[in-house]
Design brief:
With 182 residues, this protein is α/β, with parallel strands linked by helices. It is 16% helix and 29% strand. The protein contains three helices and eleven strands; from the N terminus they run βαβαβαββββββββ. The strands form two sheets. It has a six-stranded mixed beta sheet with strand order 3-2-1-9-10-11, with helices on one face. A five-stranded mixed beta sheet has the order 4-5-6-8-7, with no helix packed on it. Helix 1 runs parallel beside helix 2. It comes from Vibrio sinensis. This is Phosphoesterase.
């Protein structure tokens, strides 16, 4: 099982196109969207190529491969444009190994405010726009960063999970961070 993670698209069509190109090249089976999909939000500038309807149309063509959660900038109006559900605050992804990934945006649950997790579980979130891939106590923390508004001098990035290895990758194909969850 290979999983691709993206967060904080914020309605940017060029960022979505780059992300979907990387997703197609990755060979991943599943595209996990960690919220803030269509709306830029009041604290962010309007992103380059801001076009929520076109972003929705592109993503809808991948609807059967997407698992999505709601971000703090996502709304019921956004959901009306999407043909895959994205209004859940969290979702679980069970890996073939039996490990669990807790998927959330990061504004309700995050590395500092975790739900009840088992030893070896991974909390996967966006929201901060800062990539993380590390073991913290008995769990793992993973944040793929942002494809539209990266912060802290990081490049725009996405995440990959393959063979128990979580990686944060920039659009040049460079691995920025990684951790093994096996």
């Amino acid at each position: 099982m290979k999983v691709f993670f993206a967060s904080d698209i914020h309605g940017s069509l060029p960022a979505t196109e780059k992300m979907l190109s990387a997703f197609n090249q990755s060979g991943a089976d599943t595209l996990v969207l960690l919220g803030d999909i269509l709306n830029h939000g009041p604290r962010n500038p309007i992103p380059e190529g801001y076009n929520p309807p076109a972003v929705a149309e592109l993503l809808n063509s991948y609807a059967d491969r997407i698992v999505a959660v709601r971000g703090n900038c996502d709304s019921e109006v956004d959901q009306m444009l999407l043909s895959f559900p994205m209004m859940m605050d969290y979702a679980w992804l069970l890996l073939e190994s039996g490990q669990r990934l807790f998927l959330t945006h990061g504004h309700l649950y995050n590395a500092s405010k975790r739900p009840a997790l088992r030893i070896g579980d991974t909390i996967v979130h966006g929201h901060s726009h800062i990539p993380v891939a590390e073991k913290d106590g008995e769990q793992f923390i993973f944040n793929p960063g942002s494809i539209t508004f990266p912060r802290d001098n990081f490049a725009a990035s996405y995440g990959l999970l393959s063979n128990g290895l979580l990686q944060v990758v920039n659009f040049d194909g460079d691995v920025l961070l990684q951790t093994s969850i096996m």
